[in-house]
Every structure is written in structure tokens, then in C-alpha cells.
Predict the 3D structure of the following.
Amino acid sequence: MNKTIRIDSSDNTNWQNAIDTGDLRWSGGSWKYYWKEYSGKEWPKLCCREGCTKEATDGAHIIRINSETVYIVPLCGDHNPRSVSPTKTNPCFSIKNGSVLVNADDDGID
């Protein structure tokens, strides 16, 4: 099963940080390692959020507006809040073209 999607200009908008994922753990290690394991790619140097030039440090949980599918994407710490709840403001953002997202299905997630 292919767990990845590559972002292009037709699908790079209307993303948000996923709600209530701060306590999720992957049994194989960090979310950064999860992304590397399932994407088969080198970890990018820069945050994948459009317009950001900071170092990508976190495997962040994001969703597309009106979807329940959660993906892992490399983001900087500023763009990966430790907790997002339904009561917090959760603005939409764009992902850089060419970025790879990995589906974070429930395989090995605690």
C-alpha cells in the first residue's frame, strides 16, 4: 500500500494541524522516523509549510480541510504546535509544492 502523496499546485492549500494528536506515539519511534521510513526519502532541511525557511525538526500531524485522513509532514517547531484543540484557532496553510506527506494510519500508533 502506498502511504505517500506528493504535493503539487493543485492540492497544496487548505491544510491544518490535526486536532488532539499531541499524545499519539508510533511504536517504531519518532514521527520524523515514521516519515523517513514510509516515504523512503531524505529528511528535508526546511519546513514544508509554504513561505517558511526554518529548519524542519518535527514530523507534524496535518489534515486537509473537510477530511479525516491524517498525514505526517516535516515542519519546524513553530508550525507544529504541541497541542491543537477544537477550542484553539487553527488557521489553514499551504504546503510547499513537491513536499511528500505520509498517511498516518493506525498501524502501530499508541
